[in-house]
Design a protein that fits this description.
4 helices; binds zinc ion; Helix Hairpins
Length: 114
C-alpha cells in the first residue's frame, strides 16, 4: 500500500481512538477515573503527522472538522463516506492504492479494500 495512505489511515485510527477516549473520559471524569493512555496516543499522533506532507495534512484536518471521518474505504466502486459511485475508470486505475485519491463528491481520502 502507498506509504502516505498508510500514514493517513494510521493517523485516522489514532484520531478515532482519541475521540472515543475523550468521549468516554468525560463520563469517567465524573466518576474519578483518569483518561487512559492519552499522552501516549497524542505522542503517536505527533509522530505520524510529522511524516505527512503539509498540504495533505491540512486537507485531512479540514475534512476531519467537517466529517469526523476523513479517510474512508471504497467497495464496489462506492465511496463509504458519501455513498456515491466513483467513475469506474478512476476506481480501476487506483485500485492498487498507489496514490492518494480523494472522492470527487465529498473530498474524503479513499482507500480500496481488496
Ligand atoms: Zn465521497
Amino acid at each position: 500500500m502507498h506509504q502516505r495512505l498508510e500514514l493517513l489511515i494510521t493517523l485516522h485510527d489514532l484520531d478515532l481512538m482519541i475521540a472515543e477516549i475523550e468521549e468516554a473520559g468525560e463520563q469517567e471524569a465524573e466518576l474519578g477515573f483518569a483518561a487512559p493512555d492519552m499522552v501516549e496516543l497524542w505522542a503517536n499522533r505527533e509522530e505520524v503527522s510529522a511524516e505527512i506532507d503539509q498540504p495533505t495534512l491540512r486537507h485531512y484536518e479540514k475534512l476531519r472538522e467537517r466529517y469526523g471521518r476523513p479517510v474512508v474505504p471504497v467497495t464496489r466502486g462506492i465511496c463509504h463516506g458519501c455513498f456515491t459511485a466513483l467513475p469506474t475508470g478512476r476506481a480501476a486505475a487506483h485500485a492498487g492504492n498507489e496514490s492518494l485519491i480523494n472522492c470527487e463528491n465529498c473530498g474524503r481520502f479513499l482507500y480500496w479494500l481488496t
